Amino acid sequence: MGFDGTAVTPQIRKLIQEHHIGSILLTAKNLKSAQDTKNLVYELQKCAYDAGHTVPLAIGVDQENGGVNSLFDEIYIRQYPSAMGMAATGSSDLAYQVAKATAEEIAACGINWIMGPCLDVLTNARNQPLGVRTTGDDPQEVSQYGVAYMKGYKEAGLATMGKHFPSYGNLEFLGSALDVPTITESLEQLSLSALVPFRNAIKQGLDAIMVGGCAMASPGLNVMHACLSDQVVDGLLRSDLKFDGVVVSECLEMEALSHNIGVGGGTVMAVNAGCDIVLLCRSYAHQQEAINGFKLGLENSIITKERVRQSLRRVLEMKSKCTSWEKALNPAGIELLSRLQPSHTKLSTKAYNSSITVVRDKNHLLPLTNVIEPEEELLLLTPLVKPLAASAAAQHLSEQANTNSPEPALWQRSTSVMSGERVFRELGRSLARQRSGRVLHTSYTANGMRPQHENLINRASAVIVLTADANRNLYQQGFTKHVSMICNMQYTAGGEKREKPLIVVSVSSPYDFAMDSNIGTYICTYDFTETALISLVKVLYGEVTPAGSLPGSMSQSQKLSQSKQHWLVETFNEERDANALDTLIKAVVEGTSPNQYSELSNATSNSFLLRQANVLEAHFVVRNSSTQALYGFCSTYYFKATGTGVIGALFVDPARRKLSIGHSLHNRAIRTLLQREDVKRFQLGSRLPSIYLGIPSGHGTERKRLRQWFANLGWNTALSRPICSMTARSLQTWSPPEGMAKSLQSAGADFDLVYGWTYAGPILDHIKTSNRQGLAEVYKMALQDPSACGIIRAKRPEDGTLVGTVVLYNMQSSLAEYVPAMRGREGELVGGISSPVISPSVGEYSTLLQGLILLGIRQIKQQGCNACMLDYMDGDGNFDGLSAMGFSTLHTFEEVSCDAATWTMVPRS
Length: 909
Prior knowledge:
- The protein is of the alpha/beta class and 909 residues long.
- It has 30 helices and 31 strands.
- The strands form 6 sheets. Strands 19, 20, 21, 22, 23, 24, 25, 26, 27, 28, 29, 30 and 31 form a 13-stranded mixed beta sheet that branches. The protein has a 6-stranded mixed beta sheet with strand order 13-18-17-16-14-15, sandwiched between helices. Strands 7-8-10-11 form a 4-stranded mixed beta sheet, with no helix packed on it.
- A hairpin with a 2-residue loop joins β10 and β11.
- α14 runs parallel beside α20.
């Protein structure tokens, strides 16, 4: 039985002391905080103990996560994704961890029975009130996650309860509250789908099952209320599925049941049908009516004592697994919750980050930094929604809530968890905090599109629309489609049609626009708790790569909608493909705007071949086997020393873009790098060869396009670091900035220039302080080529320890072969400075760097060179200092790297 209020009431005390009820259901209306819950549960158990109960009360809550949590505490109780959100992560092990953590938290408050897992299969996904409370429409997937949840709950010591037997996943609602929702599927259909998760959970040791209050109308089965039918409970559940655990009825206070049968008569029917525990959520009058009906049934021998003993045995067996007086009267409380908090917070973040699903991103609008400049305005449009109710009883309470009462109504008290208005307002703030531009935020209602909305859409540079169960709130569908139409009809000042970026986010059921390809960018979060929306912001800004996928059959549809042409990718054959690659390079350079790919203009097919023993290289082409022409090329390198796999170049014939050639090459490259033994990280852009150091970042719209393209492939472009190549000309008239020589004296270092492998040991040890890929190879090439390369060193005067190095080379060096900018200068002598490494322990980083480069320029000037190249320079904070020395930027790039272990976009097979 349940009761109203956050303290033990006289009514519930009487039910425990005089009527010896053995199980209590607590809902959101009873629970204020973790500490208050612990106190309340203790008082209930103490009341039972003092009344002479031989075993503790079974005290249960709905704690399904997502939008359905009875117990909330901002400090001690974590939020985790809904069941469907967890299925979107693709990890049943993560679901197990989340279930265990959830159970540990409520167990610390004294709860010993969790009303879960939800084992319903959404065989009719649309217009279902369950929504994201269940895993999805695939019975095997629902079973897999349901069992994982059950095992997690059990590991934390709780009793479990599968629901809602035989399934709430395909109910037909006939309209009136007095009409019971009906299951129309035949027993055979149920057995093949809806019953699969229940059957598997029973085999794995499920403690209890709730039987729903729905009707069943199918051949051989005509049931008005499933939980009152011996055909369903004793027949289908006990005999066919072999369940001997505790059966719990749906709440007999539900209006359709109490109106049609009456609570007293319903109680007798439920017991005789095979229910071991009869649920009465709230009304003391109904609870008394149920007890009287039960006693009358016994007195009239309608209920046998043997029947009662069967139920008693099952209930006592369940209680023996989850509670004892020692445990019941000594809940762990806040002390344990404080210890759990750090690891559970980390788990919550991981689960939400893993669940966010990008269903479509046709125009590559993610991350938002690709399509909206910092000074532009972003518009957020959110629906006015109330939170999901935690149970039928809570829903009933919220509908009946007395607004004049000093005690806030349920849905108002739960705002910290679920109230859309407050949570969406915080989402707007989070979006604004991440960018310097303004975020405009307003809500929309069933009143539809207003002039205010149109003005804001026209004013903003990009629009985000949130929907919550739009299939059941059709105004949201209409509003979103209206916004989409406006965004599609935007024009530039010159009259050219320009589609305004629109991102639609479903914050509850993913079915809202899952199959509507007119919504080009569609994201699902599966609930609108604050934690979910924090992860959404990270995905929108590229801080988290979305890894979730739609559950069940929708996942297959998603894969079909994202299918692309798969080109035959072949390994580059130098003898066969060299001339064709030279032709392709020329086409790429000529087919793009001037200077956009000037780093390619002096490259040849030979420029990509390192031919070094400690670098594994594999290059790929898409080619026409009939004409031998190359349509695309991708180079990859695996640097053994650092365990880094690198995409060193990727380009496609401009005449054949947008045909998935680049996707096919990229996927083959990643698969190959994943197979390298001990690969630790991936990198986009390579020092060797210095043709493509990363995403070219100096070309406005082209930079945006490339960032979008690579982000769509799984690279976290928001976490890139700037790399540049620079040049200083007219060296013969060049002189260092005033005061630089004096400032170098304060750097506290001695500088010298050395040649040859004799000096290799200390230098190679020093450069290990940097994790930059390719450094070791550059230095080894320089040390092995003393006629054309040298190393400038900076040492501590007191002990000779190396604190800085830089490579010096000229046009005759083998190193110059891999720096195309060193070639193509007719009649001009050019020297190069490369790959500075400054010890992390040095405080005067900039001064030391400038000292190394200053000495390098002097040396190059003495050799008669008129220009100096700086390649592969770290752009963080160094541009200004180098510009002051007379260098101008030649090319800028964004080097992107990621942990190989986290790569999820391409399968390893």
